[in-house]
Amino acid sequence: MSQPNYSGTFHLAEQDNMDSYLAALDINFALRKIVCLLKPTKEISHDPATGTMKIRTVTTLKNFNMDFTIGKEFTEDLGPVDGRTCQTTVSWEGDKLVCVQRGEKDGRGWTHWLEGDKLHLEMRVQGVVAKQVFKRKIEDM
Predict the structure, then answer these.
(1) Across all residues in the chain, what is the average pLDDT?
(2) Which of 64, 72, 78, 125 would give a disulfide with 108, using CB separation of 3.0 to 4.6 Å?
(3) Residue 141 is assigned to a structural domain of this protein
(4) Which stretches of 17-83 are assigned E, i.e. beta strand?
(5) Does residue 127 fall inside a structural domain?
(6) Which residues form the signal peptide (predicted)?
(7) What is the residue range of 109's domain?
(8) In the predicted structure, residue 10 carries a pLDDT above the cut 80
């Protein structure tokens, strides 16, 4: 089975349990409330031939860039998110991208998958799960 190409621009359409997820990351109350109001955009550049991927999360507060090669572990700087670094590996599980982040917080990681024009994101840390759904920008379809 060939892997899907995740390239495109996606706008947040819905989210669930974000405050609890951020609390599990030790994000302070005021910042959690602000982050929960943000409507991030994900700009993804994916080269299925090489496995390289760039995910840029853009908000009015902070932007976060993640560049990696699928299947290769790297040191991820999560400074813009929660001030930590971790060892990260993003791999395919079927047609889903699954990220494992080893560091100070147990069970940390995320899963991305596509369903039609929607990009799903499930984020996990210490047994807490938050979900976001992004809708693909029309011009990218």
Answers:
(1) 92
(2) 125
(3) no
(4) 41-47, 52-58, 64-69, 74-78
(5) yes
(6) none
(7) 8-135
(8) yes
